[in-house]
Design a protein that fits this description.
about 90 residues; mainly alpha
Length: about 90
C-alpha cells in the first residue's frame, strides 16, 4: 500500500474514532444526568389516631388534647393512665 493511501486511511480511522468517542461521551452524560434527577417520594398519610379511652373508636384530635370530643373533659392523669395501659397491652 502506498504511503499516501496509508496516511489517508489512518486519518479516516482517527476521525471516525473521534466522532464515536464524542457520541459515546454525550450519551453517557445524558444517562448520568437522568440518573441524578431525584424523583420526589410520595408522602404517605399518617394512620388515624384513635381516642385512648377504653372501648372508644372515635378519632382523636389535637384540638381536644388527642382524645375524642366526648372524652375532651377527662382528666389528663386519667388519659395518661389509659395510654400506659394500652402501651402495656401492646408490649411496648
Amino acid at each position: 500500500m502506498s504511503p499516501a493511501v496509508q496516511r489517508l486511511t489512518e486519518e479516516f480511522i482517527a476521525t471516525i474514532e473521534a466522532v464515536v468517542a464524542e457520541r459515546v461521551n454525550t450519551r453517557l452524560r445524558d444517562v448520568v444526568a437522568i440518573g441524578m434527577i431525584k424523583v420526589p417520594k410520595v408522602r404517605r398519610k399518617a394512620p388515624v389516631q384513635l381516642c385512648p379511652a377504653p372501648g372508644c373508636a372515635n378519632r382523636a384530635a389535637p384540638v381536644f388534647g388527642m382524645v375524642c370530643a366526648s372524652h375532651k373533659d377527662t382528666a389528663k392523669a386519667t388519659v395518661r393512665a389509659w395510654r400506659e395501659k394500652r402501651r402495656a397491652a401492646k408490649g411496648r
